[in-house]
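Sequence, please.
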């Protein structure tokens, strides 16, 4: 299984421990705001460990990485999809997300539309 996962990766992973804010993007999912710490990241993905058990493969989420505060203008928000959920021995959950689209500012005060699939 590790070989298949490695083959699907487009860019190398770097071990980086930074706060990540994660929120569900679909109205059908119960609302939560999770702020775990990343374990590793690449240009198009992040792996983090969470205390929540709300994640499932295929779930669409909003991810802010790195996250410092809700009003920090340097925050970078993405539309992402949960690719893998690992049940860890310590009762926590390992979550791999694929960053699908950046919601970066195009110009002062406006955000990119998130209606693209």
């Amino acid at each position: 299984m590790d070989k298949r996962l490695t083959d699907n990766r487009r860019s190398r992973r770097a071990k980086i421990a930074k706060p990540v804010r994660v929120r569900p993007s679909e109205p059908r999912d119960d609302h939560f705001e999770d702020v775990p710490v990343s374990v590793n990241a690449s240009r198009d993905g992040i792996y983090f460990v969470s205390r929540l058990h709300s994640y499932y493969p295929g779930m669409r989420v909003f991810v802010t990485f790195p996250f410092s505060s809700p009003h920090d203008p340097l925050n970078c928000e993405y539309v992402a999809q949960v690719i893998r959920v690992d049940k860890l021995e310590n009762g926590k959950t390992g979550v791999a997300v694929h960053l699908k689209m950046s919601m970066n500012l195009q110009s002062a005060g406006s955000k990119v539309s998130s209606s693209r699939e």
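The chain has one domain: 2-104.
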